[in-house]
Design a protein that fits this description.
single chain; 387 residues; Rossmann fold; Phosphatase 2c, domain 1; 2 domains; 5-stranded parallel β-sheet; 5-stranded antiparallel β-sheet; elongated
Length: 387
């Protein structure tokens, strides 16, 4: 596309001079010139050709002078437009006024055409920069829209109906929350019915951030839920999930996972912890227990890895609290982490509360601790209470 240049000057020889000097640029299609005799005509030309972005503007003209035209051009708010003022050398006061009001550069009469050519090339360089910045801005806006849509889609992956199993409301209570640090996150939770008496519970944290982590999260969740439907044990489910997920792992991505199978009749929990944060059990007598640490590998890191499972018994009124490291590793303004000791202290006073109250209390405690510091990681909690 040619660079479109508008010359605004009431002296007719200027048109011939420009056409003659820039004839090669015109013939090659690099430049396209337009001409007007005053500011009124110039505005009409610009209305017809809004893609004109270089204006050579005389200051002293009839009907509308150059300074008035410059003001009109500023009102159009075209960040790419460059106005080069042209006037007699003795008119430096008006030239200075024009420069103070947004003119890009100036040339004095009689015009040094070589100097004008360099000024035009300099203007073109800045115009190209503006166009490149505008393109990047449009791409950024498009990306932000895509991220917002991706965030909405990601929320569909996470169960959001509470209570989730109305037919078992007299037996159990579940509540969960995920707050992504960025537009989209790598944490996820899930819960689903396996059979009449068993419910699967998952909380996981993908290594990484942003879109790659979110995509890996979606694949991980889909594979795990599919394997869980076969009624396999917790260890068998994660072993097979790991084998399948390792084929999708790129750039050493993996996911820490805690998968539990809860029996709604007995309160028995069969679970497998694959490198995830160790959950807590809140007993009805007010005591708090942390589950034993596991030596299982993260899921998706090594295809041949196998997993061992454990079990626990929830009494009536006991609560299982699962979380990701976005809770314990939340940093305050002094770069101190919230930590497990603070979490344990906080949980110690929450026995007997509803699952939602526990989640909201922990989130409030973390928020008070960080005191406005930027959230650095996704923060996810999944809580189950046996009624």
């Amino acid at each position: 596309m040619p660079i479109k240049i508008l010359s605004v000057d009431d002296e007719a020889p200027i048109e011939l001079l420009l056409k003659q000097f820039f004839r090669r640029k015109i013939r090659s299609g690099d430049y396209e010139f337009f001409f007007a005799r005053n500011g009124v005509e110039a505005l009409a030309v610009l209305d017809e050709h809004p893609d004109i972005e270089i204006v050579l503007c005389d200051i002293n003209m009839p009907e509308m002078d150059g300074l008035t035209l410059l003001a009109k051009l500023n009102e159009r708010r075209n960040p790419a437009m460059r106005v080069i003022m042209v006037s007699a050398y003795g008119d430096m006061r008006n030239i200075r006024l024009a420069m103070n009001n947004g003119a890009f550069d100036f040339a004095t009469k009689p015009i040094d055409m070589d100097d004008l050519a360099l000024t035009i090339e300099k203007a073109i360089g800045q115009i190209d920069y503006v166009h490149a910045s505008q393109k990047e801005h449009r791409q950024l806006e498009s990306l932000q829209k895509d991220l917002a849509l991706a965030s909405e889609i990601q929320q569909y992956f996470l169960p959001s109906t509470f209570p989730p199993f109305p037919e078992d409301c007299d037996k159990l209570e579940i509540y969960a929350s995920m707050e992504a640090a960025k537009d989209i996150g790598g944490d996820f939770y899930d819960f689903f019915r396996i059979d009449d008496d068993q419910i699967g519970l998952v909380i996981a944290d993908v290594c990484g951030k942003g879109i790659p982590a979110a995509l890996f999260m979606a694949v991980s969740q889909t594979i795990l839920r599919t394997r869980a439907a076969s009624n396999a044990s917790a260890a068998e489910c994660l072993t097979e999930t790991n084998r399948l997920l390792a084929d999708y792992s790129v750039e050493y991505m993996f996911v820490t996972t805690f998968y539990a199978i809860y029996n709604t009749k007995t309160g028995h929990v069969n679970y497998c912890n694959a490198g995830h944060n160790v959950p807590y059990v809140l007993r009805t007598d007010g005591t708090i227990e942390q589950l034993p640490k596991s030596s299982n590998m993260m899921v998706g890191a090594f295809k041949e890895a196998t997993y061992q499972e454990d079990s626990l018994q929830l009494g009536h009124g006991d609560t299982l609290v699962m979380y990701t490291d976005g809770v314990t590793e939340a940093m305050n303004r002094s770069d101190k982490a919230f930590g497990n000791k603070r979490l344990e202290f906080l949980l110690g006073g929450l026995s007997g509360l509803s699952c939602q109250q526990i989640v909201e209390t922990v989130k409030t405690g973390v928020s008070c601790f960080v005191d406005g510091a930027e959230q650095s990681d996704d923060m996810t909690m999944l809580v189950l209470r046996r009624k």
